[in-house]
Design brief:
The chain is of the alpha/beta class and 306 residues long. The protein has 2 domains: 231 residues, Rossmann fold (3-Layer(aba) Sandwich), CATH 3.40.50; 33 residues, no CATH class. The protein contains 8 helices and 13 strands. A 7-stranded mixed sheet has the order 6-7-8-3-9-10-11, with helices on both faces. The chain has a 4-stranded antiparallel sheet with strand order 2-1-4-5. Helix 3 packs parallel to helix 5 and helix 5 runs parallel beside helix 6. The protein starts with 33 loop residues before the first strand and ends in a 6-residue tail after the last strand.
Length: 306
């Protein structure tokens, strides 16, 4: 378990011996913006380079709540890990609160995850200490934040009361139902008072009711402190609880929805990913005419074209 509320899979220290830089603004005050510009990410598999992200452009405003959607293997978790500073991009820019994470050393990025960034990995048990009580879990995360120079905005009992979990304070986490354990994991991720909270599939394998209860914790802290929240999910019902969703397909931003209304997205290269139902009409490699109109653009298949 990291002191930021999740397992830190980052290894090594690329420098970073200087004091951790704070993100812009007063410490702990509200959320922070996140910006990905032209982000490409490669990883090695069986001796070959695999492209996980192909030029992602994504802006998240301070205080926004955003759900990243998309099929498995399309790059959602990679985007989240880049935002957390667990990975650095192969190309492009990742900024959190105006700080370029790619320019920070490993120690500085870990220090941010101990205070300014709360990061929950997928799964329940990696995000807490099962042998400890709920209150002890919160204390442990906050202690780690304080050793890094970050002062949490609440004590453990205050945070649990804010989240409606006060009755669990002295319960051992290992003895709680899975849904409650995941709520404790979220509480641990929020313990340091981060300005950005990132969660990978926080409702996976939970009942619909337990999943909604977990998302309600994020909504409470967002309403209380304006914290920026970004989650990864494949569950459309969970995503619908967020005012904005971003769909990642084939390593790119394929679509966005705002309050339930979906839009295609023109990326930095001028490309647009057509929705699956439109691809039935215009299969890959179809030649089309692009017709500019005063109120938009039309795609037309030339007569006789296959």
């Amino acid at each position: 378990m990291t002191r930021g509320g999740g397992v830190d899979t980052e290894t090594g220290d690329e420098g970073g011996s200087t004091p951790v830089p704070a993100v812009d603004g007063e410490p702990g005050a509200g959320g922070v913006p996140v910006r990905l510009t032209g982000v490409v990410h490669l990883y090695r598999q069986s001796g070959a380079d695999v492209v996980a992200l192909r030029g992602v452009d994504l802006d998240v405003d301070a205080g926004e709540m955003v759900a990243l959607l998309g099929p498995s293997g399309m790059g959602k978790t990679t985007v989240l890990r880049l935002m957390a500073g667990v990975l650095t991009p192969s190309a492009g820019l990742v900024q959190v609160g105006g700080r370029d994470l790619g320019r920070l050393g490993g120690a500085d990025r870990r220090a941010l995850r101990a205070g300014e960034i709360g990061y929950l990995v997928q799964g329940t048990t990696p995000n807490f200490l099962p042998f400890a009580t709920v209150l002890e879990n919160i204390w442990f995360v906050q202690h780690g934040a304080r050793t890094r120079g970050h002062t949490p905005p609440w004590d453990p009992a205050q945070l649990l009361e804010l989240l409606g979990l006060g009755d669990l304070a002295h319960a051992r986490v290992a003895g709680l139902p899975r849904g409650r354990q995941q709520q404790v994991a979220v509480a641990a991720g929020l313990a340091a008072g981060p300005r950005l909270v990132l969660a990978d599939e926080p409702t996976a394998q939970l009942s619909p009711e337990a999943g909604r209860a977990v998302i309600e914790l994020f909504r409470r802290v967002n309403a209380e402190r304006g914290t920026t929240v970004v989650i990864v999910t494949h569950d459309g019902a969970i995503a619908a609880m967020f005012p904005r969703t971003v769909t990642i397909r084939d390593g790119r931003v394929g679509a966005e929805a705002h309050h339930g209304e979906e839009y295609a997205v023109v990326d930095g290269t001028g490309s647009v990913q057509l929705p699956p139902d439109v691809l039935d009409l215009l299969p890959p490699n179809t030649r089309v005419r692009v017709v500019r109109r005063p109120d938009g653009v039309e795609l037309r298949r030339p007569e006789g074209a296959l």
